[in-house]
# Entry
Amino acid sequence: MSDNNQQENKRQFSRILFNAECTLHQSNMEWLTELQDISLKGILVRKPDHLAIDNKESCEATIRLSGSEACIVMSLDYSHEDDQTIGFKCKYIDIDSMTHLKRLVELNLGSGEMLKRELESLSS
# Structure
């Protein structure tokens, strides 16, 4: 079995391909970027130009949902990066942001039962 297949089988949370404007904040620094995908456990963004993030410190992402004033705000820990993208694990998300994220995941999964399983995995 290839490494990609093994990684896919280990993944408990569906990654939703979702293009949206995203701002990363750390200390007094800010970088505008684009969200590539999102899950209940974290995000993957296009690596911003001139990124000078301290991968040992938490940062915050503000994801603007198109067509509304609503945003998803997450506190994040660095996970991984490559030449074009950088991944983060969700450390904290407020209730309003979780409501938006839950709805986004539900719409993209097309199944309330799949969402329920992912939420149960999140709490275990």
Observations:
- The helical segments are 3-10, 95-109, 112-123.
- Strands lie at 16-26, 29-38, 42-46, 59-64, 71-81, 85-93.
- Residues 16-123 form a domain with the Thrombin, subunit H fold (CATH 2.40.10.220).
- The first helix runs from residue 3 to 10.
